[in-house]
Amino acid sequence: MSTLDARFEQAQTDVKALPEKPGNMTLLRLYALFKQATEGDVQGEKPGFADIVGKYKHDAWASLKGTAQDQAKQQYVELVESLKSGTAS
């Protein structure tokens, strides 16, 4: 396991232990970075009008299309670190 993979796994644990729940936009960013890091570019059809949350999640993930999985892992780790230190919300 690479150092980045270990840091990514630790960030997944750390994000669940944050003292405050991040805002919706930050949660969407975390979701999109996680999906890009673990699965690569967005897959499947965009959810329909009735599935608003699914549509936002799909759009957030799609916005990262072409981002390398290791780059997404690094960004995820950095975002979690900024949340832990209180410099992001």
Give an account of the 3D structure.
This protein has a single domain, classed as Up-down Bundle (Acyl-CoA Binding Protein). With 89 residues, it is mainly α. Helix 1 crosses helix 4 and helix 2 runs antiparallel to helix 4. The chain is 65% helix and 0% strand. The model has no long low-confidence stretch (mean pLDDT 93).
Architecture blueprint of SSEs:
Layout: H1 3-16, H2 24-39, H3 52-62, H4 69-85
Outline:
The chain has 89 residues and is an all-alpha fold. It has helices at 3-16, 24-39, 52-62, 69-85. It contains 4 helices and no strands.
Q: What ranges have pLDDT less than 50 throughout 5 or more consecutive residues?
A: none
Sheet with most strands: none
CATH topology: Acyl-CoA Binding Protein
The helix-strand sequence is: HHHH
- Secondary structure: number of strands: 0
Shape: globular
What number of structural domains do the residues give? 1
The secondary structure category is: mainly alpha
Rg measurement, Å: 13 Å
Q: Could you give the distance between the termini?
A: 30 Å
Kindly state the mean pLDDT as a whole number?
Answer: 93
* Beta-strand content estimate: under 5%
Number of alpha- plus pi-helical segments: 4
How much helicity do the residues have?
A: 55-70%
Key terms:
mainly alpha, 4 helices
